[in-house]
Please model this.
Amino acid sequence: MKQLSKTSLSTAPESQLSYSGTYTCPVCRHGEISAMTLTEAFACNFCHHIFTANLEKQLIQVVDSSQPMTWRWTGSTWKGTHQRDTELTFVLWVVAIALIALPPFLVWLSAHTFPPAEGSTGSWIPTAWIGLAFLSHLILVGWLIAEVYQFPIYAVLKVKLWQWLRR
Model:
């Protein structure tokens, strides 16, 4: 029995995108999308994203996300057609860097303005607080970036975590 690779999974009669076919999910790249009953939409059986389709242009767009991501069906794989606003992307990265760097800097500034007494039992607290502020803000910004851009590995891990928590 011949195995199909995940990138070329298609049970459509021809290489055209159609509601009768089953395709690899372009978001998680793990599940399969197929037409939802009584609708003109696709749904993934793994990450549960819902897609609308434009069969004439061979496009699908995810509709249950804050980012309107779109993919074009090439006949065997999905090709992203994400159009990013470069000005907005630059501003988002500047804000992300500021959110990561500013809180630890403020903690450092206050620790150096009012340093603890040398040799006191709590002299390690400002250093730990700076590290904790940096790490927590880095994790927060990383999570937000992963939610906005929906990286495939992030989507798969998110779905697996939800499945594990539902047990």
In short: Residues 6-80 form one domain.
